[in-house]
Amino acid sequence: MSEPGEPHCVLTGRLDLRAVTQQDLAELYRINSDPRTWAHLPEGRHAHPVTTREWIARAAARWEEDGLSYWTARLRTTGEVIGIGGPQRQPPGFWNLYYRLDPAHWGRGYATELSLAARAAAAQHSPDLPFVAWIHAHNTASRRVAERLGLRDWGLRPEPWHGELMHAYAEHDPAG
Q: Which intervals hold domain N-acetyltransferase (predicted)?
């Protein structure tokens, strides 16, 4: 296990962020199968634990490939798993911010806290790569988190995976 302060383990004021593993399957399936966590993208909800298992495997493999990926987010006070998130390197060459939190913990600033840690880790790892948050227009809570990070909304752009129009939040224009 990595020591606090290394990318695999980051401690924030209230969160213990550790590289996601299959040991987190039950808690992350519970969060990812909750329809409330996918209100902005209902088809993304995990209907079966195997979906979560495969998703964790892909995220965990990115630690080996890129040296940085998603963390499982736990409360430092209790160890309770409250979500997952972090930066992931994406083609053609940027860090994508991602997070998903247990609805019981929404509205407490955890998304911002995790996102600040993600931004700092990405900047430390590869400062030359842009840090981007692709956000659906109707996901106002995530848009507020991006604004708290100091990211600018560059407007609706086709996101790189499926070409869906989403708001691109970044320090600099992600198109170059």
A: 15-171
